[in-house]
Write a structure and sequence with these properties.
This protein has 341 residues and is of the alpha/beta class. Strands 3-4-2-5-1-6-7-8-13 form a 9-stranded mixed beta sheet, sandwiched between helices.
Length: 341
């Protein structure tokens, strides 16, 4: 069962939900300990291609998939045969499966691999080693591993941490630093950063600047700033928006900031499977409001085919402020890997 992300997770002020935080703390210790043991005991495998891991330290909402898509684009423009590799969360196929957007659905391979496959060859595999080897056989020179920071199966050439740069209205990407379920962290901040090679701070497109405190937090690691920008304007006319992502309130905020005439917004849990009741509810809300329906690309690919004609997908993309510098950082690491073989 999918659960909605508690918004108090992203408040540094521990006065929010203090009893709930306290009661969940023992489970957090168990979670953090299990993660640390799993990583420490692993023997990572070199799959025969450079591995660019794009991960985060929280359970979702940082924007790692848009960053992975942008990395694929940048590497491929450099002539590097970069391919995506994902666990395929929410999909029924164990893989390794090369994702075909024309044949597969989110129920087959997960929503994130379907998005990645729009830009480059993408593989869904619960066994990351098997998926990586299949991609290498298919000609991959570099693998962009989506959501791989806590998965130690593959030897990583570059480990990137993507951090949500939204700090307005009292938000903080790591909350009070508590590990799931008493907070948003997958592991303690210090432990996660110790395995990172660089940090990408992904800020909303309408934010004037990125909080300097965030940059200082990650020193001495290299830190690259990026923006989440709209690939096109939101649809015109009244709109009922909806999103099943980790932080649906960010989608609502972004639509409004982009000038959308948003008359209502319906949040769903992350990776929500939109059933007949959900879709009937959305259709009714749109009819009552005299509006059309708009959602994210990630949610749109999970809709039944007949509903994709009724709902507009609003695409966004990650863009680096220093694109040349970031590309040079990656290609240097990939070159060093190739030279060492």
């Amino acid at each position: 069962m999918s659960l909605s992300t508690p918004r108090w997770w992203y408040r540094r002020d521990r006065s929010h939900a203090p009893v709930t935080r306290f009661l969940l703390k023992p489970l957090s210790w168990i979670w953090a300990g299990a993660t640390a043991r799993r990583i420490a005991r692993a023997v990572p495998v070199d799959p025969g291609a450079a591995v660019i891991s794009v991960g985060n330290l929280t359970v979702g909402g940082s924007g790692k998939t848009p960053v992975a898509r942008e990395i694929l684009r940048l590497l491929r423009t450099q002539g590097i045969e970069a391919q995506a590799l994902s666990r395929g969360y929410g999909g029924r196929l164990a893989g390794p499966t090369r994702v075909d957007p024309a044949a597969h659905t989110a129920a087959d391979v997960g929503d994130e691999p379907l998005m990645l496959a729009r830009d480059a060859p993408a593989w869904a595999a619960r066994d990351r080693v098997a998926g990586a080897r299949a991609a290498v056989v298919a000609g991959a020179q570099a693998l962009v591993l989506d959501d791989g920071h806590q998965n130690p199966a593959l030897r990583k050439t570059v480990s990137l941490i993507v951090v949500d740069g939204e700090t307005r209205d009292g938000e903080w990407p790591f909350g009070d630093g508590s590990v799931f379920p008493s907070g948003p962290m997958r592991e303690p901040l210090k432990a996660g950063l110790a395995r990172a090679d660089a940090v990408v701070i992904l800020a909303p497109g309408d934010a004037e600047s990125i909080d300097g405190e965030l940059f200082a937090l990650f020193r001495p690691l290299p830190v690259f700033a990026a923006r989440l920008v709209a690939a096109e304007p939101p649809p015109s006319g009244p709109q009922v928006g909806f999103a099943g992502v980790a932080k649906p309130w960010k989608v609502e905020r972004s639509l409004i900031a982009a000038g959308c005439d948003l008359v209502d917004f319906v949040p769903f849990p992350d990776h929500a499977a939109f059933g007949p009741k959900d879709l009937a509810f959305l259709a009714e809300r749109a009819e009552v409001m005299g509006a059309s329906l708009v959602t994210t690309e990630k949610d749109w690919v999970r809709l039944p085919p007949e509903w994709r004609e009724r709902v507009r997908a609003w695409p966004v993309a990650a863009r680096f402020e220093d694109q040349a510098g970031f590309t040079a950082f990656l290609t240097e690491k990939i070159g060093a890997y190739s030279s060492s073989r």
